[in-house]
Amino acid sequence: MSAPAPSRPAPSPSPAAAPAAPPPGRPRTAGSRLDWRLRFALLSVIWGFSFLLIKVGTQAYAPFQVALGRVFFGALALLAVLLVRREPLPRTARTWAHLTVAALLLNSVPFSLFAYAELSIPSSLAGICNATSPLWGMALSLVALSEDRPTRRRFAGLGLGFLGVLTVLGAWQGFAGVDAKGTALALLAALCYPIGWIYVRRTLAGAPGSPVALTGAQLLISTVQLTAVSAAFTSAPVSFPLWPTLSVIALGALGTGMALQMQYQLVTEVGPTTAQMVTYFIPVIATTAGVLVLGEQLHWNTPVGAAVVLAGAALTQARPRTRDPKAPRPERARRAALPWRR
After folding, report:
1. What is the distance between the alpha carbons of residues 238 and 36, in angstroms, rounded to a whole number?
2. What is the CA radius of gyration of the chain?
3. Which of 31, 57, 79, 336 has the most beta carbons within 10 angstroms of its beta carbon?
């Protein structure tokens, strides 16, 4: 869902985040005792249900409060992992300063936007909007990251992906029945992730500390940010209904905290490319959960458009094959390698 992660990222809770694998020889964790396919499926379900949990949470709490609960319980989960491992949080002021910006772009803003969006759009549509993050990432990386070259395949993926978005929204019907404001907020939230990842790649790629420590610190900062915003713009809740409260706790502890830990284990075991494939299952699960659990309506253009979006996103993540620099290159191959000819 976003640009490739740096070597030592402060990962986004977005499913597209791809944390780097720990150094070889690191002992396997308890979670890795399960087959990686089972953990892959579980991670897909957890992240797919996140949009349902947001929807339920907003039934009792203001969007800023849902976002605050999400980062707070996510931070608690990761701090518990650090406590067990006896790993410290980052210590340098420079790292904390960059994490402050990362927390804003990758947590505080997108989490709040998704919560506000789901006040007026179905959770299934929010999940599909979230899947556009790789498309935004590809478009931005062409400008901000010199190593991402504009190939024909990636441009085709970009166009195909946004065609899928128009299909989901029913553009041929004049977007009838679609809440424009809510949809725009969800798409803007998806845009925040690649912006944040580009910033992380430029500033935190060499930061000391494990991905869990960096992410735990990032969620702590986001908790402070959202606490201030919630205090300024919302009133304290007068009651704590059971299901919305449990939804916010699960959204943070599972979907924002422990799910990232599961992804680190998957990256360690099967590599970032395979681990990132979880991104393509999320809108499917989000749509299924919204229809079966919340009774949301499903029209033909929603699954068809979602499939087109995912196909486009997959194309934008394709990388050109590497060649042996010592091998002779015929004239035809040399011309084919030039920009705009791939």
Report:
1. 43
2. 20
3. 57
User: CA-to-CA distance for 201 and 212, rounded, in angstroms?
Assistant: 16
Tokens of 180: 């424009």
Query: From CA 108, how far away is CA 101, in angstroms rounded?
Result: 10
Q: Does residue 17 come out as left (phi exceeding 0), alpha (psi in the -120 to 50 range) or beta?
A: beta
Tokens 């990362």 belong to residue: 102
Find, among 93, 96, 50, the residue nearest to 213 by Cα: 96
Full pLDDT tens readout for the chain, 342 residues = 333 333 344 444 443 333 333 333 344 444 456 778 888 889 989 999 999 999 999 999 999 999 999 999 999 999 999 999 999 999 999 999 999 999 999 999 999 999 999 999 999 999 989 988 888 887 787 776 555 566 777 777 777 877 888 887 777 666 666 788 999 999 999 999 989 988 988 898 888 888 899 999 999 999 999 999 999 999 999 999 999 999 999 999 999 998 888 887 887 788 776 777 777 788 888 988 999 999 998 888 778 887 887 887 777 766 655 555 554 444 443 333 333 333
